Each structure stands twice: as C-alpha cells, then as structure tokens.
Amino acid sequence: MSLREGKKVLLIEPFSTGHHMALYLRHIVQELAYKKAQVMLLTTEEAYGDAAYQLVQNELPSSAQVFFFKTAPQAANCCKILLLKSQITNWIKLRKAVQKISFHNSIDIIYVPTVDWIVKAVELLGSPFGHLPFSALFISPKHHRFACGIGSRRWSNFIYEQLFQRLLNIPTLNRLLVIDETFYEFAKNRYGRRSAKIAFAPDFGSVGRRVDRLTARRRLNISFKSKVVLVYGGLSRKKGIEELLYAMERESELGQAVILLAGRPSEGMRRLLQKPNVVRLLQQKRLVPQLHFHDSDDQDEVFAAADVVWVAYTGGSYGSSGVLHQAVGYGLPVIAGETGLVGMLVKRFNLGATVDPRKPSEVAEAILYLLSGRPMMGDVQGNLAAFRYKYSAREHVSAVADALEASSTRQTI
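Given the sequence above, the corresponding structure tokens read:
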C-alpha cells in the first residue's frame, strides 16, 4: 500500500540514543519526504542538539515543522514504580504538546517510532492523542519470552499481558508494529481478531559505503595482521564488554586479537576503562577505544576494520539488536549470547557463534573459530545474504508506510 501524497504526519521521537533517531526515525523521514507527505516532528531540545539529529535533519523536507516539548528525566536501572511514574509524567507532557500542535495544525496520523518510553502509561491511561489516529513501533514487549523459549519466567508476565490487551483495545490505534518476529508470531496466535492491529516491521541495520580494510585500520592505528572484534553503538556494561575484556586477559590464545570499542560510553563504561587490568590492554594496543558518536563515515570505517562483531549482551538483554543487523549488512559474522532473540536468530540463520559470555574459554573458542577461515565461514556468508534480504530497511519502511495508511480497527476485549 502506498503512502498518500500530501498526508499530514506528526512524528514523535524525544530521544536520540540507540537507534531511535539514527535508524528508525531517519528512514521513515526519508520515505515520507520521498512520498511528498507533510512532515511534522515533535522532539526535545536535548535530542535536537545531539549529533544523531543531524542524520534526521539531512532527510527532512524543507517544509517540515519541528516542535519541542520536555520529558521527565530518563529513569534507568530503577524500580518499576519509578519507571511507571516517569512514563505517566511523559504521557501528560506529550498530551499537552500534541493538543497545542493540533490546535494550530491539521494532523492526519501520528507515528511514534519507538513507543516503549510511554507504552505502560498508554496501556493504563489510553491514547494521549485524543481523537487523532496513531500507529507506533513497540521495540521490546516482554510477556511472551518465557512462552517462546527466549527468556525466563517472570511474575510480571501476566500483568504485562493484560496491559498489552488494553493497548490493542484503544480505538484510535491503527497499527502496532513490532520488530520481534517471535512476538509477532506469538501475538497472531494469541489475540484473535485484535491481532489484525499488529504488524511485523523487521529490524534492520544501516549500511553505507564499503571502505578498504587497510585504509580503515591505518586510520584507527590497528595492525593489518590483527584480528579485530568490534563492539559498536551505545557502550554500556549490559553489552557484555567487561566479560569480553576478561576473556582477552585470561585466554593466551587471543594474543593477536584486538577489541575495537566504537560508540558513546556510559559513565559505568568510562569507569571500567580506568581499571588497571583494562589500562594494560590499552597500553598493549589490544584495546582500541573510539569513544564518540559515529556518523555514517565513522560507522563504515569501524565495520571495515572488523573481522567479527560482538553482540553477546548480558544483564537480561532478550530483545533485538540493531548492531546484529548492521553486522549482517556489512557481511560480518557475530558472537552472540546463547539466550534471547539475538541468540535465537544467530542459531536459526547460522550467523556466527553463540556463547555464555561469562565463560572466557567459550568466548575465546568462538573468536578463534570465526577468525580461523574454516569452511564453515562460506556457509555463514550465504546465510548473511539470506538474512539481509528478510531483515532490510526496505521491508521495515514498507511496513511503516502501510501502518500510516491503515484505518483504525475498533475491537473490544
């Protein structure tokens, strides 16, 4: 279904971190501009001032309108009550902002490229957009994971499922897009007629130009003989970086391996890099930090320099990974954790190796195996191509365009 020319679309994305702006928002803005839709963007001044916003700015049509609102301070690693309180505060602030915009502007449809930051408040309080129809992308639903074999049993699953059904019952919700294929399959079998509102928008990675490996490594001061393991994106401990560095220290077989850390570090990550054992790796040039936001050129360079990409996340990370899709786009095998959606996809499509990141010997074995040039690598390359075709920007954007043309389907619980 094509997106109608002249359609008035309000996009809402207050955060620039992760893949919020650089990937999801940027690609749908590009599509809306191509289809000559009338684009309005509601964001925050913090996101607007971030380097990631420039990627969106480059795609915005000259006629686009940009509006600002304030959000509550982001609550991280705290109790569910505080997270819910933050979401409700954001729901109220968002409702006021959209009321003000819609008073002065005609809006056909609202699209929220990542709704997770207010989804629980929407489930409890309903749509913050009044009578206006909306579609949204839900990145990380959780209540299906135990049933689908990619997560542990949690007491909250029952509550989350009840809340999710309230979300589906909102009359003005046109489409709820999900990037987790296991959840999509689960939901289509679970929610009957209401599942017509749910659509699969495959996750994907953004891939730019091909860069010569020798040139990339020379610029990064990495020996051409080294075997490079790339950790990319927002750098935090939940990405299993501490476990990877521990394996580098402990396993003598990894003497020729280099860890390339490329992205913006969290405060916890900065503290980790100051530890004596990590400083030794830096001094030995076995750890190469590139601690800044990577634009398209920077991204092309670090992936060109890499032999394998690390996506073995820890700390209960069961959802999707944009870095996985980027690695596949650049034709690189990955090392993933055994559990969660990422591990399942790596096993299903044979995209590399899966490990328990807490076991240094397993990490070392996986790195050496993928870097060995064994015949298995030919199979990996073929599977990378098949995966790229299914999980592409084209398929994701097509699903979003369909959602923006869809009519609201009224259902009752």
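The mean pLDDT is 87. Try to locate this feature in the token string yourself.
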